[in-house]
């Protein structure tokens, strides 16, 4: 009877894995199905705020995707930077020259004390926003030509508080870059987006989201959330508690080449800090989702139970296949390293869920934040080593960009 109950419980988790794959496949299919802008959009102008720090991989291609929208309404673009010597400014200036018909503004302002860097950029951008509908988009994302249509139309419904997007990471060959893409796709697309579609209160994601300016101002503006590294999570939670709908927009693409392993560690810390905010429910739930078959495996080894061990190995095989199919669905090539990725990710994720309770520091884009529960910022300092690594990476991207231009 015990073996039957364990196997039945395992099948329930396998059913969850299958549901994840089906959801991401169908939502990505919708995301890639282009719809046309029409007369409904003509009188709905949009401000797009781009918070930027440093050059991202294929940055110009990402910008061009924003310039080639089929949206029939007016679109204002605000590119918000922190440093006047940011190498990405040159690229934005070039794009501005290439698209003289576009309403493009470039601004540079220091980080506002008490806010994280990205939120500070967005707050400065909001001061120049002309229109009531505001869309925010990170510099590392690439969008389809109907992105604004799909993001803006739901906001005509006053009961909708925000439209927000999952991010599909594509590319990379080395282990840590592949792991980062697996980590972010698993957390953002197969978990967060899936739970959002089901109506759970899991916040919003900050890669790209849209809101009505008045509603954002009514809840305190971005300043009310930017004192946390999880401003998007808290923003979505607030809107959910106020009774607003959170609409899942299209999946967006993030093309990557090579990332340092530290980025995976720090991204995992940010996720764990968010879950740490809701210890009573979220922490046990996520540990169960990630670790259940590993718990079965270790229990079988401890008890020397061959039947339990056989079931654990079977579920591990299913999880491995699930992870590989997930790679294919998210438009990634299948590489040998992907075979071990699902099992390693679940162990890694479980470790970091508990590790976040002791480690208060998170490094992001060269800035070290000391944070407390909820990711709220207590102190800010600069990681010189990280800044040096980013400078080297920026030089490499600059060289690649210049090589492409010469070709």
Task: Tell me what the structure shows.
With 407 residues, the chain is an alpha/beta fold. It has a domain at 21-274: Spore Coat Polysaccharide Biosynthesis Protein SpsA, Chain A, CATH 3.90.550.10. The chain has 14 helices and 12 strands. The strands form 3 sheets. The chain has a 7-stranded mixed sheet, sandwiched between helices. The longest helix has 30 residues, at 2-31.
Q: Which sheet architecture does the biggest sheet show?
A: 7 strands, mixed
How far apart the termini lie comes to 68 Å
Alpha carbon gyration radius: 22 Å
CATH architecture of the domain at 21-274: Alpha-Beta Complex
CATH class of the domain at 21-274 equals Alpha Beta
Order of helices and strands: HHEHEHEHEHEEHEHHEEHHHHEEEH
Q: What strand line-up does the widest sheet have?
A: 3-2-1-4-7-5-8
Question: Which percent range fits the helix content?
Answer: 40-55%
Shape: globular
**What class would the helix/strand composition place it in?**
alpha/beta
How large is the share of residues in beta strands?
Answer: 15-25%
Could you name the key traits of this structure?
globular; 407 residues; alpha/beta; 12 strands; 52% helix; Spore Coat Polysaccharide Biosynthesis Protein SpsA, Chain A
Write the layout of secondary structure elements.
Blueprint: H1 2-31, H2 39-42, E1 46-51, H3 59-67, E2 75-81, H4 88-98, E3 103-108, H5 117-126, E4 133-137, H6 147-152, E5 160-164, E6 167-171, H7 175-197, E7 208-212, H8 213-218, H9 231-241, E8 245-248, E9 252-256, H10 261-276, H11 282-303, H12 306-329, H13 341-355, E10 361-364, E11 367-372, E12 376-382, H14 384-406
Parallel strand pairs: 1-2, 1-4, 2-3, 5-8, 6-9
Antiparallel strand pairs: 4-7, 5-7, 10-11, 11-12
Helix pairs in contact: 1-7, 1-12, 3-4, 7-10, 10-13, 11-12, 11-13
